[in-house]
Each structure stands twice: as C-alpha cells, then as structure tokens.
Write a structure and sequence with these properties.
Number of domains: 2
Distance between the termini: 23 Å
Shape: globular
Structural class: alpha/beta
CATH topology of the largest domain: Quinone Oxidoreductase, Chain A, domain 1
Order of helices and strands: EEEHEEEHEEEHHEHEHEEHEHEHEHE
CATH superfamily of the largest domain: Medium-chain alcohol dehydrogenases, catalytic domain
CATH architecture of the largest domain: Alpha-Beta Complex
Strand content: 25-35%
Length: 342
Amino acid sequence: MVSSVPAADRFAAWAVERPGPIGTGPLTRVRRPPPEPAAGELLVRVEACGVCRTDLHLAEGDLPPHRPGAVPGHEIVGRVIATGAGCHRVARGDRVGGAWLRGTCGRCRHCRAGRENLCPQARFTGWDADGGFAELAVLPEPFVYPLPERHDPATLAPLLCAGIIGYRALRRAALPPGGRLGIYGFGGSAHLTAQVALAEGATVHVLTRSSRARELALRLGAASASGAFARPPEPLDAAILFAPVGTLVPVALEALERGGTLVVAGIHLSAVPTLDYRRHLFQERDLRSVTSNTRRDGREFLARAEEIGIRPTVERYPLDRADRALADLAADRVDGAAVLLP
C-alpha cells in the first residue's frame, strides 16, 4: 500500500518512445500512475538521477530498446517511501542508490564465480525496467546501495554508474603502482576514475576532444591534457577508453608501453579499424572490455570514494529539461556529469 502517493495522482517521467538522433526528440514527457512495489522491491521518490552516456545510446537507438516506452536513468538517488513484501535491508525513509545492474539469476556459472556482471539473464535499470528520469522509481532491494545522508544527492548520483564502471575499468587495466595511465574521453566516468587513480599515486594523461574537459582534467591534477588523437608525452602502462570512438582503439594501443593494457569501458563503440598485429598488439599488449559491474564493485567503489573524498563535478538540470541534458551531453557541453533534479 503506497500511502504517501495517492492512487489518483500521476507522476512525471521521460520515456524513449521513438529512438533516434537526439535532435529528433526521442524523449517524450509522460505522466503515469504510481507503481506499487512487488515482493522484494522498493518504491523510491527520486532525489537525483545522473545522466549517463548509456542513456544517450538508448535514446538514439545505439542500444536496441528492450521494452517500448522505457524510462531511462540508472544513477538514482532516492528516498524509500514504500516497501514490498519480504524487504528487510532498508526501511521507509532510508536513502538508497539504484545502479545499472538490476538483477541476475544467481545460479549460472558466472554468478557462482562472483562474475554476476556476465550473467546471461542480467537485467538493467532504465533498459529492462523503468529508471530514474522520473519522480518515482521501483528498485529491487538486493541491488540497491545504502547512501549517506550528509552528502548532496546531486553529487552522489554520478557515483552509481559513472563511478562504479570507471572503478571496474581501472581495476581491469592492471595499472602498476605509480604507473602511467592514459584516459581517452573525459566525461562523467573518466573524471571520477582519474581521481581514484591520482589518489593511488598514478600519473594521469588525459586525451579528449573537448577543451573544457581538458581544463577540468588539469584542475583535478592530470599531468597533461591534449587532443583525443594526440600522442601522450610518455608511454602508458595502461589506458582506458571512455569515448565511444572505435578509431581511438589503435591510437591508444600504439601509446602503450610493452606489456600495457587498454580497457574499453563503454557499452557501445563505433567500428574499430583493422589492427596491425605488430604495431598494436605485439609485445604483450592487452585489449580488454568492461561489461556492467558486480555489486562487489559498487560496494568497494562507494567505500573508496568516501575514503579519498571524490569530488564529482556536476551540472544540474531540472527534471523537465532532461531532453536538454541529453543534448548537452551529446554535444560535449557538460563539464563532468549531468544530473537531473525532480
């Protein structure tokens, strides 16, 4: 029973009705009746929702929609206002975070091995179920994170995907202590990952097309910041590609030191050119991808972010300007991360 949301009320949200280029208006304002949480689910009133490049890929059709009229958004900070049967970890009034990974089977070989991010039956917030571009959202209790009360919801939101995915990418990059890390693209995820790497003693070189992003990188402590296709000032022990630009894969591989690792962190990437084995992969250079995250990644990253005092750079948008937030993200007009505030 959702006593705090009268049954007659409807809540505001944005839905992807017709995927296509952002200029064609793929996001549509909708008003829907408030949902009731099923067993094991929480109904939350959204306090903030980060805008991720994955949301842009969904709106533009780079990610085929899993359901019609899906509400995007998977960096959700919300206050629990109702709980379904069987919920016991959180109570009404608690602040929780909802992230991209929404559910897994818990039984397959990947889940049993602690690699639930590879579960063939994994479900995702804002893709398989409605997300946080809305005033209300339903989240599965086993996949939410408790969040501190003392922080601004807008600065917590980007941690829940941009931060977690960047953290997993950094760990998969196998950066040695004090190593040299290249970061290609410098948006919501990259600017958080850079802070973790810097706190752990890495030298960070940023390569991105946006001059504003280069300025932010230098303010955060990067040793250099140059154009996306430039050569870094020294060989890289590891690199992470956040920009969804396949033509940067050979560029980044060529920038690696012998034995270095390139990690592709996005869910979508444009076509990768033909690689030359001796130029790009020989001398034990590794090319890796990142697929979603595990809940362990989320817990570890949120604890690390609190420990080192990560400072997300955010641009705030009211919920009724979600379409503008996505357009600004597509045009590189966002410093750090965009966040919607209902």
